[in-house]
Fold these 2 entries.
Entry 1:
Amino acid sequence: MLDRLIHEQLDRLHQLMADAPFAVLTGAGISTPSGIPDYRDNQGVRRGRQPMMYQEFLSAPESRRRYWARAMLGWPRVRLAQPNVAHDTLARLQGTRQISGLITQNVDTLHDQAGSHDVIELHGSLHRVLCLDCGRRSERDSIQRLMETQNPYLAGVDAVQAPDGDTLLDPAFEARFQVPNCPHCAGERMKPDVVFFGENVAQATAAKAMVTVERAAGLLVLGSSLMAYSAFRLCQAVVDQGKPLIAINLGKTRADEMLDLKIEGACEQFLPLLAQRLNH
Ligand SMILES: [Zn+2]
């Protein structure tokens, strides 16, 4: 038996979304049940250590060495992550055109893996690597094999998983690390094809997300605290157009004051229930 509050919230959610398709914006909260760590707690405050800033990554070879050494050990967990029922439900809703577009802040490609199409990845994807020298991209898996071949001493090293999911590695191991070179131009500055902290979202991607939101009947935010401005501005646009803004998120969001409906709940619990109602 669902309790009464959940019933009331679902009624309201259904009422807002029943007429025309919404765009959906997802954040880390939708992927935590798949084992992908969240950077922020339920007050929207960053937890764990500070992630590497873009300037730091760019400016020093030691920073890139530290980044890639840790990334090599952390990759298997990201690669093996599976979509959960929330990703699956969104893929179905997109298939039946009950949502009009899907924008994500996540870099795990779990929406694609669940069968969604034309996903707008605001922050890029960890599954690709970009060369800053020649601008070409490589598959992360092929770069992973390159790193494993060049750093056999790290095979079997038991990296300590920090509580926030980051990898802690002995500095002595980092110092020996051989950074991968670009398979196309042999350049030394390869970065995961993701937007770092301190880096801007690509203009074309930001524009595409804005158009998707402007054409939708409203915006449903799932599992995001909306602390990143690139996501928050989409909410502002929806409100400016006088369209409904809804969030399902465990904890505070930056748009709490602007929301027409806020459900403090888990996406993997609410989305299947919402889908049921929409299909009745
Ligand atoms: Zn290159």
Entry 2:
Amino acid sequence: MSQSPEKKPSPAASAAVSAPALWQQLEAVAQALHGILGGQSSKAVLGQVPQRLRPGVQALLFQVLRQLGRAQALQKQLAPRSPAPKVSALLCTALALAWDEAQAPYPPFTLVNQAVEAAKRGAARAQSGFINACLRRFLRERDALVAATESNPVAVWNHPAWWIERLKKDHPQDWQRMLAANNAQPPMTLRVNRQKTTQDQYQSALAAIELKSQPLADMGLQLEQAVAVQVLPHFAEGWASVQDAAAQAAAPLLLDGLRTTAAPLRVLDACAAPGGKTAHLLEYAAPGSLQVTALEIDAERASRIEDTLGRLGLKAWVLVADASRPEDWFERQCQGQLFDAILLDAPCTASGIVRRQPDVRWLRRESDVAQLAEIQARLLDTLWPLLKPGGRMVYCTCSVFKAEGDAQVQAFLARNTTAQSLPAPGHLIPGKADKPGCVADNALGDHDGFFYALLEKSR
Ligand SMILES: C[S@@+](CC[C@H](N)C(=O)[O-])C[C@H]1O[C@@H](n2cnc3c(N)ncnc32)[C@H](O)[C@@H]1O
């Protein structure tokens, strides 16, 4: 592989233009990586990065997380005895960014020089000679070192081995493209607020400020390029929201086909924060035709539902409570009145949205899947009795694991004779939609991984 010092900086590099020095950013990325490998989320570690460095550091950190399996495999060859965690974090940062010249945000030799500088000036000072030796050898022997990692699936796919195995078993036809999609940059997708404008009009408003977009499903627009929300026409007045195309399938699935009555339909959004789907339900229905109760266990997150609805000019009743303990809130707060429809967007591993949250794959443990599946089963069982006969429930998760999707719903149907399953998208595979015949997947463009089931209660 040849080096190209003239190479144009990638978007990650451009985002970092105003930052003072690359070595400072690399040091901050390595510290953030160290925090994530110690169990903290990327949101938490990025919160500790000085404001002026944050955009550049985030862009580089996300790239590192998407290449971490490869970097760790390369490091194992360069340093067979595991170095101290902070040294390893800096080595992996440099290797993740530099191993593939086509995707490197800066020329590999620049990255190596700057990583060595970061070592000399930062937390890995005592080991800077060792880091220098490893990275110089990497530059000299890069092709052979990379070739030696090709038989290691963790290096090739940049996911933990258990995750790869689970996807192979759950999606034997699709696992490779799912893993590849997880390592790509996600598009920015909008949901147009049909109470304020139309999909066509909003697309024209975007075009007027030179933002190209592609219409998706009912009210979606996928932007050709991500922008800050402040740039979007009438964003503050609630004309549009940022929401992945797969998440936009919930409201139509629950509300289309529900029998309307003279009184507003009573809808429970059982796990509601930050309120993206609560808002979509209210935007989608005719004004005044829904009475939505938005339940959320976490008070701080519940306040974000109010913010979301406030900007859009919508109203729901926000309740801070545990959905799995209706004895605390159903009689007292809802007067024991059954719901016409329930949306259960259950807590899950988030295995479908790792392209947006690239830390998730490294933070999750395999045992989390069974633990979360147990919580989801409990939520299904406790909320089902709160549904009117003839009422409908959408069960969804932003997971691609069958234990949190198909298998969960099949087990629920087996123990509930009052539930029947209606046509629904099932498992949506992340990346570009290519599942013809599926109810919602055809029109969704490039979307996250999701699972949807629609259940109806017998009369
Ligand atoms: C997948 S997120 C929901 C996303 C939301 N529906 C949206 O579209 O913006 C799951 C939410 O459920 C909440 N949650 C988890 N367990 C809960 C419970 N037992 N009762 C109520 N909310 C719960 C979490 O705090 C989290 O905010």
